[in-house]
Amino acid sequence: MLPESYVLVAAAALGAAIGSFLNVCIYRIPKGLSLVTPGSSCPHCGAPVAWFDNIPLLSWIVLGGRCRRCRGPISVQYPLVEAAGALIWLGAAWWQGATLDGLTTAVFGTLLLGIAITDAKHYLIPDEYTLGGLLAGLALACRGGWPGLRTALIGTAVGFSMLYAVAWLGAKAFRKEAMGGGDIKMMAMVGAFVGWQG
Questions:
Q1: pLDDT, tens digit (0-9, with 9 covering 90-100), for 140-178
Q2: Among 12, 65, 151, 189, which has the minimal tally of Cβ within 10 Å of its Cβ?
């Protein structure tokens, strides 16, 4: 069995890498762009980003937050999201160890981080987070067998129904849409992870 310190370092490194990919999602999903191609490039000069300039946290610091080619500024969002991803995965590993519960906590935290940043920047909660997260939450709930899955399914129904009711009542009261569908789907996803009690 690996020492706890190794597990924590590995979790933080994985979280930073996932945070780096989350930055790609935050930028590309709202624009309808592919997450795979083309590779990362400078938003100012379009130069491709070499692998050694794409190392989470480290590359931004080494480059001084600027493109190697044109010296255009690279948003501080990138290292901040990578650091947040590292902290989420580190915290989950420290709290619950290298277990399915730890993985579930890390995945849930990562999804919430992606939703928060994307919504703040684009006023949008994409289905890739909510519906993809819903499926991930239900799949991870299976670690508790049928009782775990049942709790997640009830949580999904309760989360969806509560916000759908608020949206419906708000639309009736204000005679216009009071809440977006992304919020409703997000609460269904949250319910899958935390159950109806959560």
A1: 999 999 999 999 999 999 999 999 998 888 888 888 877
A2: 65
Q: What is the pLDDT of residue 177?
A: 77
Asked if residue 103 lies in contact with residue 110, where contact means CB atoms within 8 angstroms, the answer is: no
